[in-house]
# Entry
Amino acid sequence: MLPNFFVVELHAVELPFASARNRAPNMTGPRMIQPYPEPFLGFADEQVHTKWYIELLTTFETSDAYRTVTVRYLIVDANSSYNVLPKSLRLVQEQIQQNADLLACQSSLTKLAPLEAVLFELDGTICESLQVHTFVLRNMLQEMGFNADTVTKEFLYDIVVGKTKDEIALSLFPDDLPRRLKFMEDEEAQFRKEVTHVWTKEGFGRMRRWIERRKFKRAAVTNASRAHAEFIISKLGLSDFFDAVITKDECEHGKPHPEPYLKALEALKASKDHSLVFEGSFPGVKAGVAAGMPVISLDFKAPFDLLMEAKPAFVIKNYKNHKFWDALYELEKAGRAPSV
# Structure
């Protein structure tokens, strides 16, 4: 027993299951306990001294299902248990937030006045679905023979975050077009099978009411198939919200090409000079900007420097951002006819 040493769970795979049931050593490595030199910060910015890590097979369960995955546990020098973040990750998060706040302060949407149309991506923009997509993708890759220890959360995020489905399939099967097409179809089908409920991003209810009360035209624009898009829209209760839905089935080119957004403008009979885009991925931001519209980028999944190359008008975590709402009200004010 090691007095004054505590275990911190790190990089636990996100799964739609409840608490851990049991743990057993993962004996695939040459040694069970390995040194862990990276410095950590606690949530009060105090230094936490890391010692070692051990990878354990951990079972997560609900009343009727369970799954076992590899979780890395850190052993730290401390007098009590800790919730901590790697120092490097903490600094990255702070830099992203500072840059996003600066961008928000410098942005204006008044040139869109009067606003007439709002265009949305679905996944990652209106709904929270990344966790389910990575869960489905993990199962599919393991069924195809990928080593379970290889298909980590970091591996999945690296091939999923900020990528189109075509890019994901291309990275997995670069020389096999039929397999890529089947993989994309199977992933969407499995996603629809797994999902029983889809959650909207924080603050979207307020965004929806603001749009509906002003009777703006609205469209969903996605690289997903029509079947998948309609499934998500139905689960979100937005079947009567959108005036148009543009999917990969209607487009020769997907995002980051501007074609999907240009088709949406055509379907709505709206001008790019009076339309606003909400996006949740780097390719999507590029597509909206290339179509000639300002883009609101939600969430911080892409590296900030990369995201800035796409030139979004705003970067916000969710629809509760106060600076963003200030910009919307300024836009609304600019669109009002002057009193006589």
Summary: Residues 225 and 249 are 6 Å apart (CA to CA).
